[in-house]
Amino acid sequence: MSYKPIDAIAHATPDPIANKVRGLSDRAIAWIFVAPSIFLLLAVNIFPLIWTIRLSFTNFRVNRPNNDVEWVGLRNYERILNDADIWNTMQATAHFLLWTIVLQVLIGFALAYLINKKFKGNDMWTTIIVFPMMLSPAVVGNFWTFLYQPQIGLFNYVIGFLTGADPSSFSMIGDTHLAPWAIVIVDTWMWTPFVMLICLAGLRSIPDSIYEAAECDRASKWRQFWTITIPMALPFLMLAVLFRGIENFKMFDLVVQLTGGGPGSITTLTSIDLKREAFEKWRTGYSSAYAVILFVTVFGLASIYVKALNKVKER
Amino acid sequence: MKKNLLASTASMCLALAVSSPVLADGHGVDLTLCWAAWDPANALVELSRDFEEQSGHNMNFEFVPWPNFADRMLNELNSGGGLCDLMIGDSQWIGGGAEQGHYVQLNDFFDANGISMDDFIPATVTGYSEWPKGTPNYWALPAFGDVVGWTYRRDWFEREDIRAAFSAEYGRELGVPQTLDELRDIAQFFQGREIDGTTVYGAAIYTERGSEGITMGVTNALYNYGFEYENPDQPYDLEGFVNSEGAIAGLEFYRDLYETATPPGSSNWYMGENIDAYKSGQVAMQMNFAFIWPGVNADPNVGGDRSGYFPNPAGPAGQFAQLGGQGISVVSYSDNQDAALEYIQWFAQPEVQARWWELGGYSALNAVVEDPDFASSQPYAQTFLDSMAIVKDFWADPAYAELLLAMQARVHNYVVAGEGTAEEALDGLVGDWVEVFEDEGKL
Predict the structure, then answer these.
(1) Mutate: best of A252, A268, A274, A280, partner B, most B CBs <10 A
(2) Could B101 and A66 be called an inter-chain contact, meaning their C-beta atoms sit closer than 8 Å?
(3) Does chain A have fewer CB atoms within 10 Å around its N or its C terminus?
(4) For residue range B232-268, what is the model confidence (pLDDT) as tens digits?
(5) CATH no. of B24-145+324-392
(6) B148-153 and B193-195 as β-strands: parallel, antiparallel, unpaired?
(7) pLDDT tens-digit profile of A29-74?
(8) Which parts of the sequence belong to the ABC transmembrane type-1 domain (chain A) (predicted)?
(9) Least CB–CB distance from A281: residue in B199, B265, B402
């Protein structure tokens, strides 16, 4: 048996310490490694969650630290669920979520399908397409307010040019019918490249041999698309939907910059409303209840969705 | 060993001296003044250099852009933060600042140093310093008088072709509007008109949704049509005052002005957007706080004789204007309260206030504004005086933020989004405000 320097180090370990380490089980050592992460998780995620749930049953206001905190039971939840304005923000959020996801998945998949074909300048086009998602949402929101300007905005000019309408005759962010679509358009412009990249990863993971086998069986391109491409890329598509769904449920900066939640409250999404309740009105107890309701909603929907995703992956 | 001990003691002392707020001469401290990031703040930096020279203190400034100013600074105060020694906070913060212990009460300090609130414009004392309102409890020194007023394109108003067209359409001379109805007529007249080959619009008004914009704008119509915040004889009695017939008519007026006489796309405009629209020659008139007037006057495109200024015109129930401006307070969480009070004592001096006005700051000191030369010192000086004489302010209760957000939503929903009627909007506002006051235990 050869004598290595590591053995020398091991032998140099003082006996009391060596005995102690030798006495630890694998499980104990595993806990030592995992404990800091668990501690952080408890401190940063679990404790605030439990604290928020506790606050949601009180009338606590963080800007009135000297006031008595009263236990109000389910009153905050009752007020939220009976508040028509909050249901309106839920509706605005649902509209935003639905249409951004539909458009981003359709356009993103189409772009990925095109980019996946080998052609000259492929890399350059990929870089150009991906460019919007590299920008800050606040910056995007800000410069789209200029693009949407009826008098000087490029967007209005292009629409006017294509339709013959007067560019200053409509305001994308000032009209209650157009504003919900204005935020959908900007989010789609910004995040479709992200969906495209995920779809591209999915398309590139499909082995060529499957298509070759289908060619041998004389399957048409259309048939190949529906029976090979879509089923095999579906887990990736569903993952993209999950990511975008979670991201857009908490959408804040882009919409605040674009519309400030207006006109009226038509683009006030739940995250904007929650921020106003918590950090402008300082209704901490009330906003905690609001946050708990949103958490349960997102958690419930995401759990169902992840189960469906796993089933698709198992197929 | 002894040498080492001496050396380490010396280096510790040096480190403490460097890290301590007390400056090397043993007298001056680092003072931080918090305010909004805008033109007057730059003037204050310039003005404060004299204070630094005289006192030996070092002034630092924390300026936050207006849209985030309240969020940032109220967070700072609510968390008991020590960032700011001096706070030039908005007038509506005074109730919260006093009741929640953020500000130091200044009565004893004023008495000891011969600073009298009788020496300041009464509306600014009520608006910026007193809490509860109407009582001699002072929490701030009036620092910057401000009020909503109007700027107009005097060069357009004086053009013969435009005057003739206006006269033909309305049967009267084109001039500075005396009433809100006249203002609307003029704005509608300019709306979509071609001037020197460019399409221009009537007026830029406040419509911003996110912070306080539309409320600061619409109140200029509401007050003048008869809106009251509460029953003057019974505090927090809102029904019939907030939603009186006059108030409903005032809200309808503002919506009509927005729909018929403002630039397309001006659905979320506040101070900055209005300035841009005016300076770029898009509008004939702009509503804005008076702080912008020095900038307009100096502007190469619209400054000098090309612009004029007028107070908010009268309505059927009188002539009022929305108060802006701020007082300067000492933050109770500051470790440098003595030095902060020194700054206030210095700032209150008549000669410093006169210099403040020269630099573009709106002094609220009577000695400055009542000086015989004041009205002619700047083209907008008389309009400032006239406007400060007709001010009204929004709620300054500790719950002002909730009251403000409710009004923002209700008014924007009606004026910009066009939802429901003015009556429904104001009835809804009464409901929202009653709920806030019930939560506050005031009803």
Answers:
(1) A280
(2) yes
(3) N
(4) 999 999 999 999 999 999 999 999 999 999 999 999 9
(5) 3.40.190.10
(6) unpaired
(7) 999 999 999 999 999 999 999 999 999 999 999 888 778 899 999 9
(8) 90-305
(9) B402
